Design the sequence.
């Protein structure tokens, strides 16, 4: 389970042996060697470093440890080298997490704010129920990316996928923005995801390249001026994160997927 407030400790209390063998401090950067470190110990150590005032943390040799960055609230930057496990950045509020590698399932699960940048692929349910912040994924995502995304007042979560997605993209989506670029698709190749937007009743999905297998609750429409401005802003941020050519990406044709009903299952479950 994720570390809770009751588990918070200072660096000294984490364990002198763990700190001495796995952490180095260089120019106010805390560098962690995570090889062989149990995921709960790593989470406790991260929270302790945050409480001790460190704003830059680098973690190497990450091999599937879960919950990295979970529930962190302060403006810190975490750089990860390796493959973080499930629920990277879950419930987090303001940190920036950069992954030089792939991410497993549940990346950004219910995150409230902050930024996650993945220099690779992400697994299933990326952005699950995210309520704020941004996720930029350079390559592909798995199944059910963006499921239950939601916004609140002027808070609008955004996820940009550089490649393509598997089935049920944006399922039950209630708010927020998904932008899928298809940069790794060949000319004429379309997105193969099925049931896109199934149960969707809010938010918007922007798509570059053709996508045809969508849920009955949504429609594919042309973008308008406001959409174009939003797309350009997200593409600019995405390009800056990964070093892509902004002009080559943004000078493509985009369409949007929007819900046509705010109560797609009203007749089934409400009387």
Sequence:
């Amino acid at each position: 389970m994720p570390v809770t407030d009751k588990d918070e400790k200072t660096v000294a209390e984490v364990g002198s042996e763990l700190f001495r063998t796995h952490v180095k401090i260089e120019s106010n950067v805390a560098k962690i060697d995570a090889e062989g470190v149990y995921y709960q110990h790593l989470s406790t150590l991260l929270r302790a470093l945050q409480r001790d005032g460190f704003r830059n943390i680098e973690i190497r040799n990450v091999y599937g440890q879960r919950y990295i960055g979970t529930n962190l609230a302060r403006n810190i930057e975490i750089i990860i080298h390796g493959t973080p496990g499930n629920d990277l950045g879950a419930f987090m509020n303001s940190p920036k997490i950069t992954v030089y590698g792939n991410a497993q399932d549940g990346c950004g699960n219910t995150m409230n704010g902050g930024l996650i940048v993945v220099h690779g692929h992400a697994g299933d349910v990326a952005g699950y129920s995210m309520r704020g912040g941004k996720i930029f994924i350079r390559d592909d995502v798995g199944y059910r990316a963006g499921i239950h995304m939601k916004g609140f007042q002027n808070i609008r979560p955004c996820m940009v996928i550089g490649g393509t997605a598997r089935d049920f993209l944006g399922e039950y989506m209630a708010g927020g923005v998904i932008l899928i670029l298809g940069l790794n698709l060949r000319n004429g190749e379309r997105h193969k995801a099925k049931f896109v937007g199934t149960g969707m009743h809010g938010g918007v999905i922007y798509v570059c390249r053709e996508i045809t297998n969508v849920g009955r609750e949504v429609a594919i429409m042309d973008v308008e001026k406001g959409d174009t401005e939003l797309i350009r802003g997200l593409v600019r941020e995405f390009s800056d994160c990964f070093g892509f050519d902004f002009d080559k990406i943004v000078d493509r044709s985009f369409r949007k997927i929007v819900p046509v009903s705010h109560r797609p299952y009203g007749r089934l479950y409400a009387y």
About this structure: The radius of gyration is 19 Å.
